[in-house]
Design a protein that fits this description.
single chain, 381 residues, alpha+beta, Adenine-n6-DNA-methyltransferase TaqI, Chain A, domain 2, Helix Hairpins, 3 domains, 4-stranded antiparallel sheet, 36% helix
Length: 381
Amino acid sequence: MSWPIKPLGELVENCNAKRVPLKQSERDGRTGKYRYYGASGIIDFVDDFLFDGDYLLIGEDGNNLLSRTTPIAFHASGQFWVNNHAHVLKCNGKVDLGFLAYYINSINLEPYITGSAQPKLNKKNLDSIKIPLPPLEKQKRIAAILDKADAIRQKRKQAIELADEFLRSVFLDMFGDPVSNPKGWEVKLISEIAEVQGGLQVSKKRESLPVTCSYLRVANVFRGKLDLSEIKTMQVTQKEMERISLITDDLLVVEGHGNKNEIGRCANWDGSISPIIHQNHLIRVRVINDLVSPHYLADFINSPGGRVQLARASNTTSGLNTISTKMVKDTIVLIPDMKVQNKYIEIRQEIYALIDNLLIGKEDDMHLFNALSQKAFSGQL
């Protein structure tokens, strides 16, 4: 490849000076039509805008800089607002915005990132990122090819979202609104149907303990699904491991999160690793009688009826929203007839089998897209 290499700072105009962060209290209750962007994309809608035109936004801080669960660079056009967690760049005619976004999302940014507790991509390091610069027409051609490949990925993602939405509709249809309980199901506290237990705190004091054991953390647990791509270990005693070890179908409930909407999200443990325990930022719920299916209980906690209870009960300290084991125990659950629960579980299994197949295809799409990106940015397209 004989393309010239230029630092990003020479190719764009940095417009960060125009950014203005809005507090949550300034956004609550608004129904604005203007997108409000943060480090990972749209986070809200507001009543006014700061920018009007075509811009490239690049996350400035947050764990997504390293984990890359969502694209770190994204196109924003039209009228919108940006807080102080995303760099705002305007192309100066030397580089195509789409080409630049795809390139930034394809490279490892770790050498440019500072901070450990809070990863940050500062302006100086951002400006120093080296960008290969083929002729502008070539850039546009590469961006157009990657647009088509990305559209395939997005369609599969939409199919997964539709399947999730369909399952939520089935839940509501079979059991009724969990808040108003229109079908008059029996009501019980979680403490009456399950054992609730906290996890172990990760600390340096554990380094001398004799047993190395895998553990689950908040990053492994989402609503109705697990992400086991990274499993960490901690040192424990034999008694701790026996007391905290998970068994198949245990529920794992997120105890604390910066986003109030994510408190209490939960998933069933699939039993794929044994032994395994959980840290103290997850709460374990283990069904102890035959009144409920663990999968029904997980979906209830993830439903509006479960979420609103835990959100109302949560405490907020230094920006972190938390719930306690007592709050989980005191959560009210509808107890439908077991035949109805079992019918729901059958439908649930069919939908999750479909989602699993879609996820396999999604992984294939990702590998193909990455391979295509590598060829594109090495001059092979």
